[in-house]
Design goal:
This protein is mostly helical. It is built from 5 helices and no strands.
């Protein structure tokens, strides 16, 4: 009989059931938004834009989706906040460093002319 809805409501009280409903609903919305952001960045890969634009667009969509997903998980498992916070910070740092590396690698190299090479 434990699985019946009425028994659950009477045993835990109405307040806890309503609170869990709103937390679960908000968590589900965050998880859904995260999935939408993950898939939103994918179609840009099939456009004729530059590879750097594609990578930037994909990494931004992926970061936003992952952060929304982490918030959704945090609402479902509040006791795991240190690990989820570490995951969010790692994600932000990784994407920032990757963005700088991509920007550095995409800039053309400049040759430095020395005075000795000009005179032969």
């Amino acid at each position: 009989m434990r699985g019946l809805c009425c028994w659950h409501i009477y045993s835990d009280g109405w307040g806890k059931v309503v609170d869990n409903f709103w937390v679960d609903l908000l968590s589900g919305i965050c998880l859904g938004v995260g999935l939408v952001f993950w898939f939103w960045g994918t179609p840009v890969l099939f456009t004729r834009r530059s590879i750097l634009f594609k990578l930037h667009y994909l990494s931004v969509a992926d970061t936003l989706g992952s952060m929304a997903f982490m918030v959704g998980l945090l609402l479902r498992r509040p006791r795991e906040w240190p690990l989820l916070l570490l995951a969010v910070l790692s994600l932000v740092m990784w994407n920032t460093v990757l963005g700088y590396v991509l920007a550095y690698c995409s800039t053309p190299t400049r040759t430095v002319h020395s005075p000795e090479s000009e005179h032969g």
